[in-house]
Amino acid sequence: MTPSSPTAQAQTHRTLEQVQALLQRPLLDLVFEAASVHRQHHDPRKIQCSQLLSIKTGACPEDCGYCSQSAHHNTGLEREKLLQVDRVLEEAREAKQGGADRFCMGAAWRNVRDGKEFDAVLEMVKGVKDLGLEACVTLGMLNTEQALRLKEAGLDYYNHNLDTGPSYYDQVTSTRCYQDRLDTLQSVRNAGLAVCCGGILGMGESLQDRAELLLELAGLDPQPESVPVNRLVPVEGTPLGHVEPIAWQEWVAFIAATRILIPKTTIRLSAGRQELPEAAQALCFLAGANSIFVGDKLLTTPNPEPGSDAAMLRSLGLLAVGE
Ligand code: SAM
Ligand code: DTB
Ligand code: SF4
């Protein structure tokens, strides 16, 4: 699949060159346009708040170069078996009390396998829904039948990221290919689940790779309901553990371009907010970001303290959806 495939172009009416040019526009012009698009489709004061929990940690057979949980890297992370359903629901209850409106459960699996563990995940999804939260899971690859079982359990979103553009993908992960990711996204769609699909900036990719990723995301038909934009969290022991962090301006530009190309989606400032000054986060919200991860931990790495996030939102006149 090339980034300038007919589907991608028909959806966005943009070529790879045009998306690259968009990412390179003077930043404040780009933010201004994105903010206008954002205000046509969304209430600019509302911020959707998701909370993450790693329900099965480490020892993943995939070799994603950024990931603390890959068995191929020596990150010192303690591996854990699948958590008990009750424990997960206790965490979900606390997340709701803390102001989250969606609970996202992540497992370090290459793919979903039918059996007791998947049945337990279905119980977790049901329990999270019974608490009145939206439910999202990210479990690696799956087929349509498995996606349908998640849908029947009440799942709202399935997260499965394309991570980067197709040309750069094999530099980041070698144990699967881009088409595997697209196939899983299709299974998710077949089951009628909402798609949460985004990527990571700052893995040494070029501007063209970022433009390719944007074209792929915008070319999904229908476009994803949710786009998480992660800034690489460098993890010691991974091949990307010492990559120079990208400038915040590049994150803002990517978010603005995402808002212009995928106007109706929810854009999440995902991993990497910890190191991002609040003023830069404010610019991201202006450029169309309307979601964050809350809680002091992502899956295995730290996230800003809940109190400081609440204060940031208040200071910007923004409201958590659950408030
Ligand atoms: N194993 C499943 C998969 O790969 O789809 C689900 C869990 S995986 C940890 C979810 C996503 O987290 C990845 O696709 C990647 O985009 C993001 N992620 C993982 N480690 C990261 C890091 N160090 N920095 C930024 N994003 C990261
Ligand atoms: C996504 O795009 N980002 C989240 C979620 N989807 C699963 C994960 C971020 C993980 C950051 C590294 C860690 O904490 O292990
Ligand atoms: Fe495994 Fe997902 Fe981490 Fe890749 S990103 S190593 S698939 S947990």
Task: List strands and helices in order, with pairings.
Blueprint: H1 6-12, H2 16-23, H3 27-41, E1 46-56, H4 85-97, E2 102-107, H5 116-130, E3 134-138, H6 144-153, E4 157-159, H7 169-172, H8 178-190, E5 194-196, E6 199-201, H9 207-219, E7 226-231, H10 248-261, E8 266-269, H11 278-286, E9 291-294, H12 306-315, E10 319-320
Parallel strand pairs: 1-2, 1-9, 1-10, 2-3, 3-4, 4-5, 6-7, 7-8, 8-9
Helix pairs in contact: 1-9, 2-9, 3-10, 4-5, 6-8, 9-10, 10-11
S-adenosylmethionine is lined by residues 66-67, 106, 108-109, 138, 140, 160-161, 163, 200, 230, 232-233, 235, 271, 299.
Describe the structure.
Helix 6 crosses helix 8 (178-190) and helix 10 packs parallel to helix 11. The radius of gyration is 18 Å and the shape is globular. Strands 1, 2, 3, 4, 5, 6, 7, 8, 9 and 10 form a 10-stranded parallel beta sheet that branches. It has 323 residues and is α/β, with parallel strands linked by helices. It has a single domain (6-314), classed as Aldolase class I (TIM Barrel). It has 12 helices and 10 strands. The structure holds S-adenosylmethionine (SAM), 6-(5-methyl-2-OXO-imidazolidin-4-yl)-hexanoic acid and iron/sulfur cluster (SF4). The site of 6-(5-methyl-2-OXO-imidazolidin-4-yl)-hexanoic acid has 17 residues, from strand 2 and strand 7. The site of S-adenosylmethionine has 17 residues, from loops.
